[in-house]
């Protein structure tokens, strides 16, 4: 034990040379994470975003995101299996890749096997990384891009090897096909470099990296420019809806992103980045984080936006914390705390609680991703029952309109065996994908949309209310299912009233 601690301290204080990648602790963490995510991948059901992505046709972009995530979901559901476990394989791979990148960042800053193991196991089984590794959302892939881009910038600056700037530019450019949020990372890192340096950079390599990123991001720019900058409209709509709450909740959520137990580790990393003389070349990371917090606050973005750089601070913190663990009792205490953090995070993030008991636990209130996976087959069956209650003549040409893309995606996935027509929705990209026919057909309207048109276009009667049967309070629970008849205008003429971005 003493010799390991001595080696760890020597590694930390060494100004030259980079430790070998500790494959035993890092690889075991990667394998364990892959197994856990694979075993639990079929739990509960599809997330609403997964159902939405599955429904979107191929395109260069959509009003609410670039094309990568929908394309991956369509590809996996078509080529592998149209089941939830299949479309989550890429999410698992992204989560495992993120663990490796965190370990590489620890290594880049001089961390040996103990520090790398702490980085890999602590990050891989922390709360929000587990959440985003479990479901196929845009954020899991985005975290990989943020960590990779930061790692390559650190290598370019810390090793004084300018070729790594090109790798960073490549990652930034490719990341725009998944999410445009990577721009916030670029701005935050630029603020850090300008504020504290090192300012003497090989600017022709930096310019080349920017050119690489710009060329790769050009299709995303063209899509935005030719579609009236939908990302700005989307951002404005989300800010109007959730902005004030997000600004307040972002601060306490910082303590929960990796779990309260790991807060001292990333705080130690933040302090070390700002104060350690041998980390002078990467001090910009310590300044980039508050810059990112300011950007997230001003934009009123999602509360998890800081996670990409918070993971970098955590990686940095593993180095001094590993040195502090020179005494066996400290190592035992920290190991126990990390295990507790992993277990609590797993219960919250993964479908470990039986769905029949989920509504009686705090998990749905803590983890929105969990509650957004519950009830879809039951909801579709209830909408189909309303359809079956209609006279045969009213079923001909029936239109089904849903309030949100999750409901539409669920009907598209589970409705065909029940004879349900292709659903329509006015939310985000689905409003453009399909429109109602130019008829005055009877419509089943799921959610609040019936109130939008009742009295102006049709007479709407609530025929049922959705119930997932397990007491989980999600966006669909208790929403009305209305039958709208006697339309004075064809449905396609009132379709603009259903459009909404959120």
Side by side, the strands of the main sheet go 2-1-3-5-4
Q: What percent of the residues sit in helical stretches (DSSP H or I)?
A: 55-70%
Strand content: under 5%
Note the total helix count. Answer: 26
The structural class is: mainly alpha
**Mean pLDDT value:** 92
| Weakly predicted, low-confidence segments | 1-16
Termini, distance in Å?
A: 54 Å
Number of strands: 5
Shape: globular
* Major sheet description: 5 strands, mixed
Radius of gyration: 25 Å
Q: What would you say this structure looks like, in words?
A:
- Helix content is 62%, strand content 5%.
- With 502 residues, it is mainly alpha-helical.
- The chain has a five-stranded mixed β-sheet with strand order 2-1-3-5-4.
- The longest helix has 24 residues, at 203-226.
In short:
The chain has 502 residues and is mainly alpha-helical.
Main attributes of the structure:
mainly alpha, 5 strands, five-stranded mixed beta sheet, 5% strand, 26 helices, 502 residues
List the helices and strands and how they pair.
Layout: H1 2-13, H2 23-40, H3 48-55, H4 68-79, H5 84-87, H6 89-108, H7 113-124, H8 127-134, H9 138-158, H10 163-175, H11 182-196, H12 203-226, H13 230-253, H14 263-275, H15 284-299, H16 307-324, H17 328-349, H18 355-358, H19 363-366, H20 368-371, H21 376-388, H22 392-395, E1 399-402, H23 405-414, E2 424-425, H24 430-433, E3 443-446, H25 449-453, E4 459-465, E5 480-485, H26 491-494
Parallel strand pairs: 1-2, 1-3
Antiparallel strand pairs: 3-5, 4-5
């Amino acid at each position: 034990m003493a010799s390991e601690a001595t080696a760890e301290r020597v590694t930390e204080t060494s100004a030259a040379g980079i430790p070998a990648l500790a494959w035993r602790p890092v690889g075991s963490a990667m394998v364990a994470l892959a197994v856990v995510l694979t075993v639990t991948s079929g739990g509960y059901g599809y997330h609403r975003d997964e159902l939405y992505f599955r429904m979107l046709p191929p395109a260069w972009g959509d009003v609410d995101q670039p094309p990568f995530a929908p394309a991956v979901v369509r590809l996996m559901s078509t080529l592998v299996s149209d089941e939830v476990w299949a479309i989550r394989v890429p999410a698992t791979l992204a989560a495992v890749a993120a663990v490796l990148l965190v370990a590489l960042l620890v290594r880049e800053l001089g961390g040996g096997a103990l520090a790398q193991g702490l980085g890999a196991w602590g990050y891989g089984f922390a709360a929000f990384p587990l959440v985003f590794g479990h479901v196929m959302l845009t954020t899991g892939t985005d975290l990989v891009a943020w960590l990779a881009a930061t790692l390559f910038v650190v290598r370019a600056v810390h090793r004084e090897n300018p070729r790594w700037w090109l790798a960073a530019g490549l990652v930034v450019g490719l990341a725009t096909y998944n999410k445009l949020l990577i721009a916030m990372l670029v701005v935050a890192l630029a603020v850090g470099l300008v504020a504290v340096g090192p300012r003497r950079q090989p600017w022709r390599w930096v310019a080349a990296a920017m050119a690489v990123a710009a060329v790769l991001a050009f299709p995303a720019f063209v899509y935005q420019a030719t579609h009236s900058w939908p990302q700005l409209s989307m951002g404005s709509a989300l800010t109007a809806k959730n902005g004030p709450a997000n600004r307040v909740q972002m601060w306490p959520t910082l303590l929960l992103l990796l779990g309260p137990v790991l807060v001292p580790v990333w705080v130690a990393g933040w302090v070390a980045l700002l104060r350690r003389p041998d980390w002078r070349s990467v001090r910009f990371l310590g300044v980039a984080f508050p810059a990112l917090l300011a950007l997230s606050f001003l934009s009123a973005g999602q509360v998890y936006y800081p996670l990409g750089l918070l993971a970098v601070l955590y990686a940095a913190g593993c180095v001094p914390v590993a040195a502090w663990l020179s005494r066996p009792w400290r190592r035992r205490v920290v190991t126990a705390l990390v295990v507790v953090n992993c277990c609590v995070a797993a219960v919250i993030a993964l479908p470990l609680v039986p769905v029949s008991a989920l509504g009686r636990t705090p998990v749905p209130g803590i983890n929105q991703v969990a509650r957004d996976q519950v009830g879809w087959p039951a909801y579709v069956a209830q909408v189909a029952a309303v359809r079956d209650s209609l006279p045969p003549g009213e079923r001909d040409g029936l239109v089904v309109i849903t309030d949100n893309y999750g409901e539409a995606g669920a009907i598209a996935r589970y409705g065909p065996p029940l004879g349900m027509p292709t659903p329509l929705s006015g939310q985000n990209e689905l409003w453009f994908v399909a429109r109602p026919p130019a008829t005055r057909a009877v419509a089943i309207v799921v959610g609040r949309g019936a109130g939008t048109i009742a009295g102006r276009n049709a007479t709407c009667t609530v025929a049922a209310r959705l119930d997932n049967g397990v007491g989980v309070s999600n966006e669909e629970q208790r929403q009305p299912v209305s039958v709208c008849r006697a339309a004075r205008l064809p449905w396609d003429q009132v379709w603009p009233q259903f459009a909404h971005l959120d």
